[in-house]
Amino acid sequence: MEKEKLWKSILGELEITISATYYNTFFPGTKIEEINNTENTILIKCPSNTSKEIIGGKFKNRIQELITNRTGKNYNILFDFDKREENNNLEKPLFKNFNNVIIEKEKSNTENKVADNSKSGLVNDYTFENFIIGPNNRLAYTVAKAIADNPGKAYNPFLIYSGVGLGKTHLLQAIGNQIALKRPNLKVLYCTGQEFLNELMDHLQDRRNKGGTIRDFKNKFINNDVWLIDDVQVIAGREATQEEFFFAFNQLYLNKKQIVLSSDRHPSEIAKLQDRISSRFSMGMIADIQMPDVDIRTAILRSKKEQMHLYIDNETIDFIAENISTNIRELEGAFIQVITYANTLGVKANIETARLVLSNSIVTREEKNIRPTKVIQEISKFYGIEIREIKGTRRNKEIVLPRQVAMFLLKEINQLSLMSIGEILGGRDHTTIIHGADKIKKELDNGNFKLKKEISTIKENILDKY
């Protein structure tokens, strides 16, 4: 098979089997450069070092499998990137290090300067330099850095979604701070969805009481080069707020101004968000941030230790990182609790102190070491349906509930990424996993006693048989 036809076939398969975010960001511009039958190698050329590292690290095995299926030969897959094209492509950030943990250091004579952000809503503490990068957030970071380097030129709009405390605000602020520092001629505005809502309500009240207009409100948001809006999901369900948001968004977008947003969920999962707004979000780039693994959590705490000039041994830091895995905010909170307790009582901040202070927050080791297959097996037994049905495509009511319980428990007990859960459950999309897990959580929060008892029993069975 010719190399062009082979790669076109591979790309067609990847487009429908992997995350659209990864495919649309890293695969355009790739090609098979050479098929060497003598050395039994295939060289894949990527447009940048970033795409080479991501594709070679995350998708190599999948690509190798697809090539083997199509050629009948087990080639050694090699990756390279076009250095000339990357040097000319200023819209894509360059990384010198793609280890599991990266603290990107900007090499510039403005490194220690800060911009005057008094009117922009920015906080100088949030920078790319002190953002810890790992597999859980690398895509979001990569796009954020590209935007900061060239606002309005690529990835517009850009939306980051994740649970609380995982770094959405940090990245939005870092974008704004870098632009304000390096391109002071551009006007940057950061606000939250709640601030947008509150300010609109204030202006509407003033108009009723004083007979004024809402023009000042509109001008505040449309007269910017970069608009960063955090927790945009707050505007959902509020028609007047969505009308004004849509107007501001459209004005900025049509004028090629940069828009960056964050949300606690994928836009398709935001209830009561107008379709026209959701579709606008989908026009650009969407990336999620997952909970970091233990190596990244350890790196975050060690960085915090250095920033605060604290004395605490690495073994204790490792202990905290291993046992606090909900979100970064709680991780850092637990770290400060241990330090504060030790300083107040004049004791060492060691593992014994950490175990005492965090006793109510630590998840049992038994829960953390349970295999995903065990969770699915117990759900299968409890509901009396086969595992293949849970992973299958049928949507009968008696199958959908156990499947959603599986999504919920794999996320809660095993703390797997949405993509990992989707792969385990038959290759489902991450938005399906979000919907299923959230539905179970809402039922529990709304007092569904029957479901709560069922899940409690399943968890007991899992732990008893561990």
TrEMBL record:
The record's listing under InterPro entries reads:
AAA+_ATPase, Chromosome_initiator_DnaA, Chromosome_initiator_DnaA-like, Chromosome_initiator_DnaA_CS, DnaA_C, DnaA_dom, DnaA_N_sf, P-loop_NTPase
Keyword Isomerase among UniProt keywords: no
Q: What is its main location?
A: cytoplasm
Cellular component per GO?
cytoplasm; plasma membrane
Please give one Gene Ontology molecular function term for this protein: ATP binding
UniProt: ATP binding residues: G165, G167, K168, T169
Name the segments for region: Domain IV, binds dsDNA: 343-466
Q: State the source organism's domain of life.
A: Bacteria
What does the UniProt entry say about where the protein is found?
Answer: Cytoplasm
Question: Looking at the Swiss-Prot or TrEMBL record, what is one Pfam family this protein matches?
Answer: Bac_DnaA_C
GO biological process entries: DNA replication initiation; regulation of DNA replication
Keywords from UniProt, A to Z, are: ATP-binding, Cytoplasm, DNA replication, DNA-binding, Lipid-binding, Nucleotide-binding
Ranges for domain Chromosomal replication initiator DnaA C-terminal: 371-440
Record's subunit section: Oligomerizes as a right-handed, spiral filament on DNA at oriC.
Q: Which family does it belong to?
A: Belongs to the DnaA family.
This protein's domain notes: Domain I is involved in oligomerization and binding regulators, domain II is flexibile and of varying length in different bacteria, domain III forms the AAA+ region, while domain IV binds dsDNA.
**Annotated protein name in UniProt:** Chromosomal replication initiator protein DnaA
